[in-house]
């Protein structure tokens, strides 16, 4: 072969190799379409004897753009992993009987969520309820003969508006909706029918559910206390509309239907659980101090409401999902600590023992805290295991020894390179406080290159990000961005003092925390200070709008589902009896200066940053009118801007898989438009 042919062959080989490398690198990235392939575990329920685990396997249907779920069963040792229900529907929330030979679950096989019974030995499946509305909060009686649950019961209403009789065949408009309650609409549900969740009991052999409460407020978390006695939580005070947190624990005699309060303080008492010997009740709550954030403590009282004791008094974290240990000497619970969700045990004397970390992985979009667990009668446990590389899988354990049983996304991630997630800490320029964050690098990261940076901000504002999988963050990274997400002041999982640094002070110094994080990351040579971008949703949308009213350092911004005007928000959002009372010094008309000082709309004249507004059209939490106000202000000030409306979407834009993709692609397209080479 002459030199020319050798050179030609080498060139061809080099080109083909380069093409192959480029294709390989491109193909191994996590792409938007991959969202439809994601699966995750929820509702893990370990059997009373600890030998088997029921869990819910969640998946997506690319053809209908819907989320579905089926119930599976697996042995504690990981063997015999088997589906018990199948099909494109939603089967969820399995609840074991005390005997462990059957379980109830909920399903939307019909138009509403109803209750079903599955008998394992017989492999039989029976529908138990056929109510007008969905079923929730199921508990078995000790002898497994009865179930208690809650379901919404509409309240008959009499129309104030009297219409004349219309002519035969006339086609008039539908009757007007008459609203007289303070809670009349809810994000994700829309405008509400009048009525409340009531308590029902039902024989497990079948029959008609019997309603045993007729309350003027919602009942929740019913539990069997004795053969003829049930406990539940509700706010039955006359001023419940204006004191929405003031719930109590009640008992009810199912024969006489007499209701007796077991707690009586200003503040929420909720989520009661009965001790194995039925002598004590544990529950969550706190003394109302009208702070933006208050941590739930763990209380124990006798079954008649006496001898109340706060056993977590010295524990500076919020407690949730409590369960008694088999011997009744303590309780299991979960809590968030520095962006990590943990399973722990606390003795009745208040001694804490951490059991397992990394509960989570049930929020696919953004790295929020979301995980759960269950405990058997011999103290084995099952839990949702999640980390930065995987949505939740099934984990099991005993004492502090645990193992992962499933890998639902192995088929996807075995050939995908995700962005590496690194924990970072930095000091706030405002007061030198330590702030936690995480830095995500693009797949195939090359430290010799310069990468654009996205600052992504969490909502809440009382919530937390952490070392958890996030489809949105990973998709940003796969587009070639370095992504920084943090927990600025106001975030949970650092104690009540840190969270309440924003009490009546939001937004404010959280801006300094966020900018300090950006400055900290800019010290790294691979971050391009000429290509900085910022986005966030909900409370993160508030902070994004606030940031661009304070600085022009970002090339572009995407403000997702924000609050722009606190005055209009507290009167138009879906919890009008909440926000003015806990987030502000009082009603807006009495505190106009305070409201407007904290409203991004007050600083719209300062904005020079190209800005996209993105909100669901059916968002009742941060209504789209908030986004439209800011958009109008930007346009009037000749700022490059765009308004993106997501049809049919509520506050949880990413509830449908395609909406998550729309959100990510909209954000990255906007940033690419203003990215400089």
Q: Output the CATH topology of the largest domain.
A: Rossmann fold
Annotated CATH homologous superfamily of the largest domain: Alpha/Beta hydrolase fold, catalytic domain
Which of globular, elongated, flat, extended, rod-shaped describes the shape? globular
Q: Strand count, sense and closure of the main sheet? A: 8 strands, mixed
Radius of gyration: 27 Å
Count of DSSP-assigned helices: 11
Descriptive report:
With 677 residues, the chain is an alpha+beta fold. It folds into 3 domains: 35-89 and 315-409, no CATH class; 128-156 and 183-310, TolB, C-terminal domain (Neuraminidase), CATH 2.120.10; 417-564 and 599-674, Rossmann fold (3-Layer(aba) Sandwich), CATH 3.40.50.1820. 17% of the residues lie in helices and 34% in strands. The protein is built from 11 helices and 38 strands. It has an 8-stranded mixed sheet, sandwiched between helices. It has a 4-stranded antiparallel sheet with strand order 1-2-3-4, with no helix packed on it. Strand 29 (390-398) and strand 30 (401-404) form a beta hairpin. 46% of the residues are buried. Residues 4-25 have low confidence and may be disordered.
